[in-house]
Design brief:
Blueprint lengths: L1 H40 L3 H9 L8 H17 L3 H8 L9 H14 L3 H9 L6 H17 L3 H8 L7 H19 L5 H10 L3 H5 L3 H25 L4 H52 L1
Helix pairs in contact: 1-2, 1-3, 2-3, 3-4, 3-5, 4-5, 5-6, 5-7, 5-13, 6-7, 7-8, 7-9, 7-13, 9-13, 10-13, 12-13
């Protein structure tokens, strides 16, 4: 009988010890989280990551692991380490209160990194959300379609825009304008630009939309042509001066042609890049408004 009492007392003591240990771990974790959030509030995201790395993951329950992964992902997002940010944000599981935020920002990171298919997959798998999050999903998907210049898909997705949510309406309207701007970029021919500059130096760059560059490339060629002509008549076709000016004229003339060819491509790419940067910026604004 006494031995049974001893066994029961031992079991009871073990339960008490386990409960105290669990409370200590919980208290320690909560203190760690408070400290990490303090660092984040101060903008010390690198230090927050260091503090989070010190927490032993093996001692955490699933909910605590979600908190850890979210805070790590958010810290990496704020130091613009987007690959690492997505790695941790996408580890966050469904029951976690910030699951939707983690998924949306994880997808946005991939969009910014031009991993469009991966981002689309994350967004496609989001379901059972409230109306504003559902429309945010269509908005982010429409942004991917714009960046890929897939206008039919963009039209389908943008048809879901209600323009009823303050956090989304301005950006939704801008997306429609970005589509018009992208479609309105003139498709100029590099061959035509090269031929124009071969006939009249600099005009190919003017055709490409680089008016000042066209004028700037025309002036030295005209000046060299005049000097070469003068040298020819004064010094003769076999003079060193004529050869020198003639060689410089040839270099500038050929460079003017090739410069016009590349100017067409560069001008279009610069225009598209400028619009794409605006799209990326507008993709982020609603997320910061809705989830912060």
């Amino acid at each position: 009988m006494a031995s049974i009492k001893k066994i029961l007392l031992c079991i009871f003591a073990l339960f008490i010890f386990a409960d105290l240990h669990a409370q200590q771990l919980m208290r320690s974790f909560q203190e760690d989280m408070s400290f990490v959030q303090y660092l984040q509030d101060k903008g010390q995201y690198q230090n927050a990551i260091i503090a989070l790395n010190e927490i032993p993951v093996s001692t955490l329950n699933p909910s605590q692991q979600d908190s850890l992964n979210y805070l790590k992902g958010w810290s990496f997002y704020n130091i613009k380490s987007l690959d690492s940010s997505s790695f941790y944000l996408l580890k966050v599981d469904t029951p976690f209160t910030l699951y939707a935020k983690s998924r949306f920002f994880g997808a946005y990171n991939f969009i910014y990194l031009q991993y469009y298919d991966e981002a689309a997959k994350i967004l496609n798998n989001l379901a059972g959300m409230n109306p504003i999050n559902e429309e945010t999903k269509y908005f982010e998907q429409a942004g991917i379609a714009l960046l890929k210049k897939n206008y039919p898909v963009f039209d389908t997705l943008s048809s879901n825009f209600s323009y009823n949510f303050y956090a989304l309406s301005a950006q939704e309207k801008r997306f429609l304008n970005y589509k018009k701007q992208l479609q309105g970029i003139k498709k100029r021919s590099p061959v035509v630009a090269g031929l124009m500059s071969a006939i009249i130096p600099g005009t190919g760059k003017i055709y490409a939309g680089k008016t000042y560059q066209g004028i700037a490339s025309m002036l030295p060629i005209v000046a060299l042509a005049l000097l070469t002509n003068e040298s020819y008549h004064k010094r003769g076709p076999h003079s060193a001066e004529f050869y020198g000016f003639g060689a410089l004229l040839t270099v500038f003339y050929v460079g003017n042609i090739w410069g016009s060819v590349f100017a067409v491509k560069i001008n279009r790419e610069d225009h598209e890049k400028s619009i794409n940067q605006k799209i990326l910026f507008d993709l982020q604004i609603p997320l910061r408004t809705i989830f912060n």
